[in-house]
Amino acid sequence: MKRILLLGGVTEALAIARTLGPEHIYSLSGVGRVPTDLTCQVRVGGYGGHEGLAQFVRDERISLILDATHPYAAQISRNAVQAAQLCGVPCWALRRPAWQPQVGDDWREVSDWAGLIETLKPFKRPLFTLGREPLQHLDEIPAEQFWTLRALDVYPGNDRCEVIGARGPFLIEHERALFERRAIDVLISKNSGSTATEPKLEVARERRVPVLVLKRPVLPAVDREFTTVAASLQAIHTL
Question: CB-side exposure of 161: number of CA atoms within 13 Å?
Answer without folding.
Answer: 22
